[in-house]
Amino acid sequence: MNNKFIQRLCLANSVGMFLVLLMGALVTKTESGRGCGDDWPLCNGKFVPAYTIDSMIEYSHRFVTGIVGLIVLAAFIVVLRRSKRMDAKIHASGVLFFTIVQAALGAMAVMWPQSSMVMALHFGISLLAFAFTVLLYFAIREEFGAEKANPSAVRPGPSVWNPGNVAVTKGFRKLVWFTLIYCYFVVYLGAYIRHTESSGGCTGWPLCNGEVIPELSGATGIVFMHRVGAILLFLVIALLARASAKSDLPKRIKLSGKWSLYLVTLQVFSGAFVTLAFGSDWYLLASLLHTVIISCLFSILSYLGFIVLPAGTTKRAA
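Structure tokens predicted for Heme A synthase:
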């Protein structure tokens, strides 16, 4: 098993989890979650279900999740056996853990009724699993890419904790982690809108039902809260991008801050697209685009949060 194979396995891990994330959103948006009835892992009591749109969407999601689960398990075993980096092992463990939790929540959602608040967690768990696959891929690429260029760069021995190992102020580190946690909260609000079927609570954009502050009740209150949260997220990320543009910070921090600002801007406009497309044939495409952008944004913020973690006295392995 060569280094290139390990890197490709971790890349497949990340791509596969992204597909699971996207297909889960498709199941929710098309209301296909009951396409296989109350059966799990079978679909309406069959290994190969009868062809209906709902059953095929739901069963395809289950099938892809099963395949990706095997890739996740393989990556976990390989990383634990071959990697010398503690952070890579933590990332691999995080992927496996959240994949199991995601599968368990999905099974419970099929077999037993759950509240909208619990259902909204499904997307958040999938997002965490995807973010960990991205972190794992970058850690493995750095470790084995360095090893290929310089075989003595990563020596055998105890696993090392190897985050970004960059010098940043405590204030900047707190800002990064506040942004990451707050972003997750805004994502949860968005998922909650889907599972409470509140998407039509605000018509028009940027105003909500033609008002700056609408009546804050029911679906309108939920959607308006998400809009306010999204605006505040844009402002926080703009502040983060400005702080990360300082000349004394590494290039990857500057790029992460810059791309975070680009993506949150796109997310705002994709949210407008979702609102304006509601009830039309474009609504599904707009919703999936919204999901793709927020997944990329959260992953970049997760990467930024990780690389600003203090490394203590441990030297970089590579």
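The chain has two domains: 1-162, 166-313.
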